[in-house]
Amino acid sequence: MAELAIEQLTKSFDGTEVLKELSLNIRDDEFVAVLGPSGSGKSTLFHLIGGLYEPDAGSILLGGENINGQKGSVSYMPQSPSLLPWRTVLDNVLLGAEIAGHKDQQAAIQMMEKAGLAGYEQSYPHQLSGGMKQRAAFIRSLLSPQPLILLDEPFSALDEFTRSEMQKWLLDIWQHNKRSILFVTHNIEEALFLADRILVLSKKPARVLAEFKVGFARPRAEDITLTEEFLQYKKDIYKVLKKGTGE
Amino acid sequence: MVLILLLIIWQVLVPLFEVPEWLLPNPYQIGLEAVNSWPNYSGHLFATIHLSILGFLIGSSVGLGGAMMLHLVPKLRETFYPLLILSQNIPIIVLAPLLVIWFGFGLLPKLIIIILVCFFPITIAALDGFRQTSGELLHYMKMAGADRHEIFWKLEWPHAMPSIFSGLKIAATYSVMGAVISEWLGAQEGIGVYMTLASSSFQTTQVFVAILLIMSLSMLFFAAIVLLEKRIIRWKTSGGGNLNG
């Protein structure tokens, strides 16, 4: 069970409210994108789900179990690949699983092969390109046993071309290894292309402004980004974002 | 190259100004003495090697253990860090006679001196290495659910390896110096003893042989650490920039 249910989550830092009664939920194997202006408390949301802080009020339920302030309940992929430079790529993709206590080297080698990283098992991170490092970081989170993966703007540091390649790659590998995913981004197109559902956050204190169900069938091809429907979604989301930040 | 040139200049100038050997021998005389009197000083040399290695091993263990404790227990760090620096402000030459008064002429006071000069560079280097761990990596480890123990052994410890080796290199060369100073205090054998005997009888050439031995030993120890470092730290590239590449 991977259902994530966040209810009435509130958190302040030094008297500034960052999250205010924020509620959202993610179903089993669902891909949800969270869109919001920068500084809208997206990372605070992740830190709370990741258990680094306790919320001031509200609860975070994963599979019906309260995980407030519990570290290691979810799998995480940060903005930078954050691979350990002294570990080989193979040992790096196993790190998440190692910390969670479920290491499976064979599965890791197979997954690396599927991800186009075959032959790099014994290389060190500095020998990989930016895109390959991100792939390794994503595999690391897939190989961790937790049912929910948090992705924190994972492609924001990549160039446009690599980014679109990585989005297609991510969808493909997720299609074959379904997990629940919470994906934070500030790129509308990225959210539309990847997600089943998009939640638009407001400025601080963050709450959910609007929710969009993205109806494109899977597997998705790149050309959906050129359709009339895609453009219409984009306009609608843009309007909500504009209004939300203009308040 | 520069070294050879200096030796040549030295070799040429000494006879030119007719400097007597008891004042300043030339490199050839020193070399000759080093070869000929090997049976006289080999025992001293091995005694010093033994003492330095023993002192270095204990000193580095104390240094590393101390750094780990100070790092993992912040309270200890606040209390002991100033003391640590203070311990280095006491001149060894003043401390040495005191140690003899307290512990006699045996091995213990000598080891204490070497440990005192060895542990400091390692403790400081290791502490810095532990503390300068990248924030990004630390954040990832925390989000992945790593506990304090895992963060230390999987992240901070390997991250500090290059700094620890810098500390070890400094300590390795210091250990020879520490050994020689401790032998001056009163020992049966050792390069320090050989040197004292030579200088008190105006055997200047032998003093230079002793200096040569000390330098060679330091360099040998240094090279050994560099070799060990190359074997252990393989992930570092010569090009650097290994974190983001």
Automatic annotation (TrEMBL), chain A:
Family matches, as InterPro entries: AAA+_ATPase, ABC_transporter-like_ATP-bd, ABC_transporter-like_CS, ABC_transporter_ATP-bind, P-loop_NTPase
Keyword Nucleotide-binding found: yes
GO MF annotations in UniProt: ATP binding; ATP hydrolysis activity
ABC transporter domain span: 4-228
Highest taxon of the lineage: Bacteria
CDD domains given in the database record: ABC_NrtD_SsuB_transporters (cd03293)
Protein known as: ABC transporter ATP-binding protein
Organism listed in the record: Planococcus maitriensis
